[in-house]
Specification:
mainly alpha, globular
Length: 330
């Protein structure tokens, strides 16, 4: 597949996932949505985009997403690993995108995740995991990539194999449960860095489709390595133009415009509520030491994200079947 086409796909999908209107509610206290509701949202996403997803394809995509989340939550050895799994996903997005604004968005989201979950206790995160697994209990689908790697059985149950990262939370629950993540040394929980280019140590949340999955890097990856990786992507594109394999005035061939029909209502109304003493909800949360979504992050994310969609619908020439892309990865 064309290099520029692939890069456009990755940038557009990442942009959709980092939509502030989608992210903001995730950092606000609210009941967990049910699976039927989640399925409805995903179907609406598919219908509002130019992707070709019939009912069968939608079923496969939903099953893949559901079972991968279920596997990662099942295999997690402790609350800190749950956060590290999220950071691995964010690292994956950062590695895939080439757009500078996309990279800024990814970094902001990582800061939001770290700040929010660091203020939660070990028990709060673990109970959230348990709630998610209860919601996924009835979903038992065999996934080809998990079967090939020996991580799933024919009856759809999982093989949880020993990994380098093992938090053993249940053995230390008595002393850690009521402590906040930020108040406990990482080394107490088998390490794993929350830094932007830190070593997460856990494999969970990394791209399982890569042939190098399971091979831990010995060299520490830093910001300079990340910049070199981005430079390689840019050089490949320039080389393609110089060799005459691409038009110099590149026309984006398609877009994956997920969640484009989200209502424009202000999702921050709840954050502006005040109590009888005139204090905002966020002010009270700060005084109580409760996790909150920093308004500065939201403002920054809104500003950077807006740069994604200048002239968004210009130059669209074809649609793309997302399931075909997944098949090519396998």
């Amino acid at each position: 597949m064309d290099y520029f086409v692939i890069q456009s796909i990755l940038d557009e999908v990442t942009a959709a996932l980092l939509n502030p209107k989608v992210l903001s509610p995730m950092f606000e206290e609210s009941p967990m949505i049910g699976m039927p509701h989640l399925r409805t949202i995903l179907e609406s996403v598919a219908l509002s985009s130019i992707m070709k997803l019939d009912a069968n394809s939608m079923d496969k995509l939903f099953d893949l997403m559901t079972m991968m989340v279920k596997y990662q939550l099942t295999a997690a050895s402790g609350p800190r690993e749950i956060v590290l799994i999220m950071l691995n996903h964010i690292d994956g997005m950062r590695d895939m995108v080439s757009d500078v604004n996309a990279q800024k968005c990814v970094t902001l989201v990582q800061e939001m995740v770290v700040d929010f979950y660091s203020c939660l206790t070990f028990d709060e995160i673990w109970r959230a995991r348990q709630s998610c697994l209860r919601g996924l209990e009835s979903y038992n689908v065999r996934v080809s990539i998990l079967l090939r790697r020996g991580l799933q059985n024919e009856d759809a149950s999982f093989n949880i194999t020993p990994q380098r990262y093992d938090e053993r939370y249940m053995e230390h629950k008595g002393t850690l449960a009521t402590l906040k993540i930020k108040d406990v040394s990482p080394e107490t929980c088998c390490g794993g860095s929350f830094d932007t280019f830190g070593d997460r140590k856990t494999l969970l949340g990394k791209n399982i489709y890569l042939p190098t999955y399971g091979i831990m890097e010995n060299a520490k990856r830093d910001s300079q390595q990340f910049l070199r990786d981005c430079g390689v992507k840019a050089e490949l594109g320039m080389l393609a133009v110089q060799l005459g394999t691409e038009e110099t005035s590149y026309e984006r061939p398609f877009t994956l415009n997920l969640l484009s029909n989200v209502d424009d209502e202000n999702v921050n109304n709840a954050n502006n509520e005040t109590d009888s003493e005139g204090k905002s909800v966020n002010q009270k949360n700060a005084e109580n030491g409760e996790p909150k979504l920093n308004e500065d992050y939201k403002a920054k994310l809104d500003n950077v994200y807006a740069d994604f969609f200048e002239d968004e619908h210009e130059g669209l020439t074809r649609s793309m079947d997302l399931l075909d892309l997944l098949d090519e990865l396998e």
